[in-house]
Amino acid sequence: YYANYLRFMERVRTEWLGSLGFDLAPFESAHGVAFVVHRVEIDYRAPARLGDRLDATLALIELHRARMVALQQVWRGAQLLTDARVAVACIDRATFRPARIPPALHSRLEALA
What we know:
By secondary structure, the protein is an alpha+beta fold. The protein has helices at 3-19, 24-31, 103-110; strands at 33-44, 55-63, 67-76, 79-92. The protein is built from three helices and four strands. It has a four-stranded antiparallel sheet with strand order 1-4-3-2.
């Protein structure tokens, strides 16, 4: 089911931030922000099947003050099943307005972009 790829990508983004030292839920709570998907451009190249072992990847390709863009892919072995360009915006949790990515995270992401 094609929407599952979006779930896989969401999970990768959360785990990726955790691997950088930013556990998402406590980080968002401590800084009063949330990260929301702003835009997705996705290409479905081949179907996955029940029981397939899949790998999902993320590469940061753009970083701005209040948003970031990642290239996310889902693979079955050496076969690319889908790839997406995912824009994630940082918002203020109280107002739902755009907010700057907190400095500690932004500076860590700068090293990757």
